[in-house]
Amino acid sequence: MFTVIFALFVILLAGLLVDGGLAIHARQRAADIAEQAARAAADDIDVGLLRTTGELRIADAGTACAKARRLVARYPEAGDVQCGLRDSRTAWVQVKITVKLQLLSIMPGFSDMEMTSSATATPETGT
């Protein structure tokens, strides 16, 4: 009896280590992808307005988000993507990654986890 309980306890601890590491990695990966996508969206500036008035703003939410979605599509692990503009100078992107549990999935009550991260970016000028 002791061996069975001890074995289950060891499997649970190993699952927490392995699957916890996978979850932390997925969260960092989602943050990285979201930051890159937000920068891609913020790169869609209104060049005409910048040249005539010197005002820097994002041209269009649709094209900015399309750039962000194209960038996120390069990463097969990235799932749901949300994108938008907070104002004419700030783009935000949210990326969700699903973590497939390796060891804890054999235990009842544990299922896949979703890790979400978001980022914002603003265009800048200068040298």
TrEMBL record:
One Pfam family this sequence matches: Tad
Top-level taxon of origin: Bacteria
Which residue numbers delimit the Putative Flp pilus-assembly TadG-like N-terminal domain? 3-44
Q: What is this protein called?
A: Pilus assembly protein
- What is the species of this protein? Actinomadura alba
Q: Which taxonomic lineage is given here?
A: Bacteria, Bacillati, Actinomycetota, Actinomycetes, Streptosporangiales
